[in-house]
Amino acid sequence: MKKIKTKVLNIVIHFFAILVMAVCSMTFFMFSGQAFAQTTGGINKAKTALTTVTSDISGLFELVSKFMFAIAAICALVGAFIVYSKWNSGDQQSTKLAAAWFGSGLFLLAAGIFIKAIFL
């Protein structure tokens, strides 16, 4: 009984996966034709739009980089408080916890620097 239930469930899952893929591909083809039809009228409009988007996005990456630094600072403060409280209670895993919090803060700092270096 359980094998039949599993087989039927697998068939239903595959059917819905194929259905979702078909709907997504039809939607893509419908909207891609409209997008090409709209951009054939003016190359200069497309250039202006791309220039505007590029300047907006570069400003956004700087903001995201600063936000990552702020999150890293908050993460460091929360991690320091948690590690201190675990250490005072005599928990044996406090060194692993300290390494995990330090690693997460370091990752956030590196991600902020990486975003700044690559996209600006």
Features:
120 residues, mainly alpha, 2 domains
Q: What percent of the residues sit in helical stretches (DSSP H or I)?
A: over 70%
Structure classification: mainly alpha
Cα end-to-end separation: 60 Å
Domain count: the total is: 2
Number of strands: 0
Order of helices and strands: HHH
Structural summary, described in words:
By secondary structure, the chain is mainly α. The chain folds into two domains: 40 residues; 78 residues. It is built from three helices and no strands. Helix 2 runs antiparallel to helix 3. The termini are far apart.
What is shown here, in short?
The protein is an all-alpha fold and about 120 residues long. The protein is built from three helices and no strands.
Write the layout of secondary structure elements.
Blueprint (H helix, E strand, L loop, with lengths): L1 H38 L3 H47 L4 H26 L1
